[in-house]
Amino acid sequence: MAEQPPQNDEDRGFIRDQVTTGLSELRRAFHVLRHRGPSQVQFWFIALLVGIAAGLAALLFRKGISIIQGVVYNSKDVRALQEFVTDVDWYWIVLIPIMGGLLTGWILHLFTDDGRVRSVADVIEGSALYDGRVEKRAGLASAAASIITLSTGGSSGREGPVVHLAAVISSWVCGLIKANGITGRDLLGCAVAAAVSASFNAPIAGALFALEVVLRHFAVHAFAPIVIASVAGTVINRLAFGDVTEFILPVNTTLDFYVELPAFLMLGLVCGLVAVALMRAIFWAEDVGNHVQTLTRMPRWLRPACAGGLLGVMAIWFPHIIGVGYGTTSAALTGELLLHEAIIFAILKVAAVAITMAGRMGGGVFSPSLMVGALTGLAFGGIATSVFPNVSGSETLYALAGMGAVAAAVLGAPISTTLIVFELTGDWQTGLAVMVAVSLSTALASRLVDRSFFLTQLERRDVHLAAGPQAYLLSMFRVRNVMRDEDHPHAAAEDDIWAMIEQGIYIDPNATLEDAMPLFERNNDVFIPVATMGEEGKPPTILGALFQVDALKQYNRALAATAAEEHS
After folding, report:
1. Which of 102, 474, 515, 564 could be bridged to 511 by S-S, CB 3.0 to 4.6 A?
2. Where is the CBS domain (predicted)?
């Protein structure tokens, strides 16, 4: 009994420490709420406004396609466009995409510096390299060109242009509020999430698409505003179209998962190869288009019209290739197509998409990849159910899994694409089949291209984002901003600079650290002279020297900032 009071003192001390710690945490929380809370709430409000604006832009883009398509093809239902095209005289089927191509080419020629449509790849580049900003003038021109393309016989998707249009809105807001890099990227993610959600009526997938594909990280600080914007975009969609899914599936999409697991594993591998074929067809066609344009000295404004002529000829016999293709996708998901039809339509859609993209007509690859995937899955399912009729489920289940598998491999976005498929169809019971096919297709395709269609596009432009920040951060810094000029207290000796220049060792001030680091590695020098070459017979102008230690410090700071943003 004599030893009990010390024990009570110890308990009281423990309780006192806990109370003191709790009060301290409450004071700190109140301080954060008082000094940082209002600004955070203000940013969420801005994110909401950006989400509403991006959602409205997506809605207007979609409505614009429907209106123009209805006038041009006399179509009352965009989803059943091919049924109305068959009533149009054959020469109009050819002339309409040619005229659309001429108008598209004229717009891009006047308002872009290279005649190229901006899309998701440019948004990813803007997020990584330009503090969340994209080109506004070229972006608006690209949106107009894509509307015309999708309304006049182009074979591509509406989601890519909508994503870039949303990025234009966020870039304008960033300029208005003078947002820094982190804020700019967060607002870009908000706009993209809202645009995707408004396009697909898929709020969960919209938010994850922005994080997975555009920002390429899942930072906690970005999650709340992006979700707010995504919900805003979904509300815009549902106010206009109601709470309905994009595709209606038959009710018998059931799965005896363990029995059919090998089939869906095989489907995933097949879809991965199909996705690679789709991507490589687009890139090959683009190379051919560039070669033909150079060889014939064709003006760039004429290139979309030539592609439109090819599409028009194809559409005379196969009108299914025209437009976004949701009607054919829906027919595949409901099993309304025969096996040979699914195979032929898939091949023709790949060719049509390649011609459209190579012709620089506008549009994206998301909807085409859904259509090609659904057709691939339906064909695979038709074969599987005929070979193993006793253990196979519905053909339409394979179409659903194939749709997700090809799209995920093309986009390089297995998580968000899986969710988009679920939200597009409203069928969550078949999730296991979709997940298995998506995982295999993405794993295979990412080994055969640079992670995704968009990142491969950037690699072809010598923009190296696929390998991560460690690969592209050096390209963000100009030599002139890191070098030591002649007045620096620790500048390089002038005699040493001239000696190296005489050996041909120097770098231009407008070069990047990505250009400089191989020089350091090759010559093993402490510094590299920075100079501009004069006209013939005149000596170069020395501006200073780039020290390797300064370049490495800049690189390390950039890596640390990127890591801090991604883990905040």
Report:
1. 515
2. 500-562
The per-residue pLDDT for range 111-132, each reduced to its tens digit, is 999 989 999 999 999 999 999 9
What residues contact residue 18 under an 8 Å CB cut-off, 6+ apart?
Answer: none
Contact 349/371 with Cβ under 8 angstroms?
Answer: yes
Q: What does pTM read for this prediction?
A: 0.86
**What residue ranges define each of the domains in the chain, with the CATH number in brackets?**
37-241 (1.10.3080.10), 257-466 (1.10.3080.10), 470-566 (3.90.1280.20)
Query: Reduced to 3 states, what is the DSSP secondary structure of residue 542?
Result: strand
Please give the order of strands across the beta sheet that includes 541-547: 484-485, 541-547, 527-532
Which residues in 440-562 belong to E strands, given as ranges? 484-485, 527-532, 541-547
pLDDT digits (tens, 9 = 90+) for 175-210: 998 888 889 999 999 999 999 999 888 888 899 999
542 - beta bridge partners?
Answer: 531
CA gap 498, 542 in Å, rounded: 9
Are 329 and 403 within 8 A, CB to CB? yes
